């Protein structure tokens, strides 16, 4: 038997095959059309692009590993969270999906919390523009004709599952990011739904991430050479899937992700919200397990931005910063290019450089950007600690984890050893495949969600601890001063 993990991202889809021991045996990917920004702070994507990329990625596996793909018995899905995919009564897409990093609904967040004072208590989270529910509140106000036609609201991976199976289904980890879920009870909340004028009929059926949810359509099974019943698991939101891929499902186990956005993730055996610090408290993809996240909106995206405006390649900037590194410099960067979630919860926050001089070169700017993202992750660690959370083990995933300097900065500033897996790029797809294995075989997730082989472990540089604590204090002082100056 083999099992397939499909990770749906905004830039493309990754598909990964594993055998019944959980070992990866084949992978493929396909790009998606990039999101568009019709207005400042907006971010949208056509859901059809996810489906086109999904078919292309699995078709590539059919071409490269036909015998292995034919033995697939379980499929798991992972996907970018919070996206509002609006469907009409015949499952037609009513408008482009409003994505996770869209900040247009800040006003609606305030209105929702005013309308339901217990919102934070039920949802375990602050109403933020990135979540799904405020997006629907915005549509109700600004696009009433579309709002009136809504029959279902699906998250991105649930939309792909609909096309794979014909059914509307969502798992607990992704559903927790909608702001419609009673996260402690792991069920839709009638009170939260009512704030946006919706009810349970607009929601997909809920299942646990490691549980069987539905079967693959026969015509798709035939297309890919599969026979018999192919089970599709509940799956997971991208971060919970990455946790399953790196074995972070027990309390205290976590990871730091340096992708387009940045995440500091830790698993919990109880529901532990900390809305004061803008911590995300969600259900995990594993039954009776929760997790917390500190989330920043511009991680590697900050370095991408610097590369774009400087006309240099990101890899060249990263190498130049590493070559000239001697510790913190004069330059400090606030990475709030798309607003911020943890800890400020301010969609209107903006990035800035301070400490620039005639001697500042692109290498120093790149180092400051990497340090600024690192300090933002240190902010996340601080508010997780305020919630009483202790992180025992931390792994690094995402494109930014390829930078030795960035990992050194993180280990030093978080004052923790950070382990780097050999296949960090496929954390989400591997986690999805593992969930597919559990769903199809009934295996215990604790036996399957093990740590992958570790490439290296990065230790904190104690000689830089005091210098970076001082620099972090300066970094923290900048946000309130700049916010007051521009407000």
Task: Give a quick precis of the structure.
By secondary structure, the chain is α+β, with helices and mostly antiparallel strands. It folds into two domains: 2-234, Nucleotidyltransferase, domain 5 (2-Layer Sandwich); 247-421 and 453-487, 2-Layer Sandwich (Nucleotidyltransferase, domain 5). The protein is globular.
What does this structure look like?
The chain is 38% helix and 21% strand. The chain is globular, with a radius of gyration of 22 Å. The strands form 8 sheets. Strands 1, 2, 3, 5, 13, 14 and 15 form a 7-stranded mixed β-sheet that branches. It has 487 residues and is α+β, with helices and mostly antiparallel strands. Helix 1 crosses helix 7 (156-165). It has 18 helices and 24 strands. Strand 16 and strand 17 form a beta hairpin. It folds into 2 domains: 2-234, ATPase, nucleotide binding domain (Nucleotidyltransferase, domain 5), CATH 3.30.420; 247-421 and 453-487, Nucleotidyltransferase, domain 5.
Largest sheet: 7 strands, mixed
Number of strands: 24
Tally of helical runs:
18
Name the average pLDDT: 94
Helix content: 25-40%
Oligomeric status of the shown chains? single chain
Quote the distance from N terminus to C terminus: 59 Å
The CATH topology annotation of the largest domain reads as Nucleotidyltransferase, domain 5
CATH class of the largest domain: Alpha Beta
Structural class: alpha+beta
Radius of gyration: 22 Å
Inertia-based shape: globular
Count of folded domains: 2
Q: What CATH architecture label of the largest domain applies?
A: 2-Layer Sandwich
Low-confidence runs of at least 5 consecutive residues: none
Please identify which CATH superfamily of the largest domain we are dealing with.
ATPase, nucleotide binding domain
How much beta, percentage-wise? 15-25%
């Amino acid at each position: 038997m083999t099992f397939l993990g499909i990770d749906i991202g905004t830039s493309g889809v990754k598909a990964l095959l594993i055998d019944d021991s959980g070992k990866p045996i084949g992978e493929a990917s396909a790009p998606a059309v990039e999101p568009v920004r019709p207005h400042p702070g907006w971010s949208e994507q056509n859901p059809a692009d996810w489906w086109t990329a999904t078919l292309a990625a699995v078709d590539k596996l059919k071409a490269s590993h036909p015998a292995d793909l034919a033995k697939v018995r379980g499929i798991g899905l992972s996907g970018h969270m919070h996206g509002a995919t609006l469907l009409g009564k015949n499952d037609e897409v009513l408008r482009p999906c409003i994505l996770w990093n869209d900040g247009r609904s800040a006003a609606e967040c305030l209105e929702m919390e005013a309308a339901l004072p217990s919102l934070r208590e039920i949802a375990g989270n602050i109403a933020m523009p990135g979540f799904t529910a405020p997006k629907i509140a915005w549509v109700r106000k600004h696009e009433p004709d579309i709002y009136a036609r809504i029959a279902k609201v699906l998250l991105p991976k649930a939309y792909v599952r609909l096309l794979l199976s014909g059914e509307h289904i969502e798992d607990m980890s992704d559903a927790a990011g909608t702001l419609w879920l009673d996260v402690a009870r792991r069920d839709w909340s009638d009170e939260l739904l009512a704030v946006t004028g919706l009810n349970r009929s607009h929601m997909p059926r809920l299942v646990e991430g490691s549980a069987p949810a539905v079967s693959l359509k026969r015509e798709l099974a035939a297309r890919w050479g599969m026979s018999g019943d192919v089970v599709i698991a509940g799956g997971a939101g991208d971060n919970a899937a990455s946790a399953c891929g790196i074995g972070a499902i027990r309390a205290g186990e976590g990871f730091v992700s340096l992708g387009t956005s940045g995440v500091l993730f830790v698993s919990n055996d109880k529901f532990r919200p900390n809305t004061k610090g803008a911590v995300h408290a969600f259900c995990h993809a594993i039954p009776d397990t929760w997790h917390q996240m500190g989330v920043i909106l511009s991680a590697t995206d900050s370095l991408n931005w610097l590369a774009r405006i400087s006309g240099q390649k990101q890899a060249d900037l990263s190498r130049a910063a590493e070559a000239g590194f001697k510790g913190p410099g004069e330059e400090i960067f606030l990475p709030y290019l798309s607003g911020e979630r943890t800890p400020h919860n301010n969609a209107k926050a903006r990035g800035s450089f301070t400490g620039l001089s005639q001697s500042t070169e692109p290498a120093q700017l790149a180092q400051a950007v990497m340090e600024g993202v690192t300090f933002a992750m240190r902010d996340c660690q601080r508010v997780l600690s305020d919630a009483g959370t202790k992180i025992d083990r931390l792994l690094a995933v995402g494109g930014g984890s390829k930078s030795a300097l960035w990992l050194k900065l993180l280990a030093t500033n978080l004052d923790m050893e950070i382990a780097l897996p050999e296949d960090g790029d496929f954390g989400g797809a591997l986690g999805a495949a593992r969930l597919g294995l559990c769903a199809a075989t009934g295996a215990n997730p604790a036996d399957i969600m093990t740590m992958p082989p570790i490439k290296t472990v990065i230790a904190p540089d104690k000689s830089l601890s005091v210098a970076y604590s001082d620099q972090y204090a300066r970094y923290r002082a900048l946000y309130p001063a700049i916010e007051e100056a521009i407000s």
